[in-house]
Backbone:
């Protein structure tokens, strides 16, 4: 949208021209995608609340023209780099994945994520763009300062959409990653697919489905999209599947026995390595499934607890920043607390974090006894809750009390909740 006036007109048309209460108008505007960001909506709400909340769209248009002009100026100030960043040169485009732990629970449970080091050499506007590889998966794009862990930005991407985070960054080191939101798995467990066959002569052959899966797996772990797995990439893969990093001698053995190019393991070499692994485990295929389960795949080889993504970084000047793969690591400790305490202090011990494709309700237990969070979502429209059972929050602890996603991202949805912290009996 070029101006807030255009945004207002678009939202009014989307609502069928009927007068909208301010809360409705705000929610409609959030669904506009390219209209306003959550930060901008919060700024608009602050400006309007300071001068009286308009009860309808008509009053807003007729009686608050000065506020409209005032906010258009504020909106321009909120995006000083928008025009320049649209044409900003690309610093890097990389791949990654997020893998939820099988033992964890909750929408934002324990997980391993590809993390990146963003080095900013001089003050510059930077744009981070996250594109999920699989539809119907919700990912959070996170940016924090490496020195003190201060969370600088979080946005969401879902259902084939993308997440964009624009920030003016000072010189220093930053960490970028994406986290996967866990959704309840209500489907029945599918039958286990066959990974290989053994002919009468004892020769082991990988099935077409498993071979295709390995090729996709190779591309998922080729973080820099170079066409090969570097030692660091293969070591990160091996650490998740075998529990240990690749040592010098082991990497030398890989290079001597499997196809490599420019010092990196090729796709053909990666598939051949797994062929030998299948031969070694022909009598115990469960060993292969242990690796696949650790990587977040189900018995049908479909991604159950894993999601791939593409991360693109742009900067005002290409030489002002550098992005490098830092490896695969757990989400930082205390992430939920940083979400809850970021910006304003949480009201009554909880904070609602509104993103483009998700609403997070984070509860901080400020008391001396354990509590459970009870979140009433009965007045929400067009969205689905991911938390079925209220979490237990210990004293001074923090928990994701509820996570709400739209039923259909292309349809309007609204969130109206109440939150209570009740003693844990």
Residues:
């Amino acid at each position: 949208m070029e101006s807030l006036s255009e945004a207002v007109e678009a939202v009014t048309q989307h609502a069928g021209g009927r007068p909208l209460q301010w809360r409705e108008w705000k929610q409609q505007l959030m669904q506009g995608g390219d209209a306003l960001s959550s930060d901008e909506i919060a700024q608009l709400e602050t400006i309007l609340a300071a001068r009286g909340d308009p009860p309808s769209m008509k009053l807003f248009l007729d009686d608050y023209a000065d506020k409209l002009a005032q906010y258009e100026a504020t909106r321009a100030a909120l995006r000083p780099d928008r025009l320049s960043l649209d044409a900003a040169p690309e610093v890097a485009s990389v791949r990654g994945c997020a893998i939820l732990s099988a033992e964890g629970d909750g929408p934002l449970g324990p997980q391993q994520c590809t993390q990146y080091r963003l080095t900013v050499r001089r003050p510059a506007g930077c744009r981070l763009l996250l594109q999920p590889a699989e539809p119907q998966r919700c990912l959070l794009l996170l940016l924090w300062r490496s020195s003190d862990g201060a969370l600088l930005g979080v946005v969401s991407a879902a259902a084939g959409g993308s997440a964009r985070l624009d920030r003016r960054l000072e010189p220093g080191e930053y960490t970028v990653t994406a986290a996967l939101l866990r959704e309840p798995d209500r489907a029945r467990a599918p039958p286990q697919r066959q990974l290989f066959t053994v002919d009468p002569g004892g020769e082991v052959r990988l099935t077409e489905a498993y071979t295709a899966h390995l090729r996709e797996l190779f591309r998922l772990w080729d973080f820099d999209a170079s066409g090969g797995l570097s030692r660091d990439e293969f070591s990160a893969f091996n650490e998740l599947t075998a529990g240990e990093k690749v040592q010098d001698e082991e990497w030398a053995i890989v290079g001597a026995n499997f196809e490599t190019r420019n010092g990196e393991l090729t796709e053909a070499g990666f598939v051949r390595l797994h062929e030998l692994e299948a031969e070694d485990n022909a009598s115990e295929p469960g060993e292969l499934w242990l690796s696949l389960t650790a990587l977040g795949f189900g018995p049908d080889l479909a991604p159950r607890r894993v999601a791939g993504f593409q991360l693109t970084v742009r900067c005002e000047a290409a030489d002002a920043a550098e992005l490098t793969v830092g490896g695969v690591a757990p989400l930082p400790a205390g992430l939920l607390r940083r979400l809850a305490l970021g910006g304003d202090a949480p009201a009554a011990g909880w904070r609602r974090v509104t993103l483009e494709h998700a609403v997070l309700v984070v509860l901080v237990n400020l008391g001396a006894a354990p509590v459970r969070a009870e979140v009433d979502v009965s007045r929400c429209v067009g969205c689905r809750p991911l938390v079925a059972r209220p979490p237990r929050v210990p004293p001074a602890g923090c928990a994701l009390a509820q996570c709400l996603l739209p039923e259909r991202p292309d349809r309007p949805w609204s969130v109206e909740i109440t939150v209570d912290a009740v003693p844990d009996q």
Notes: The first strand starts at residue 90 and ends at 100. The two ends are 51 Å apart (CA to CA).
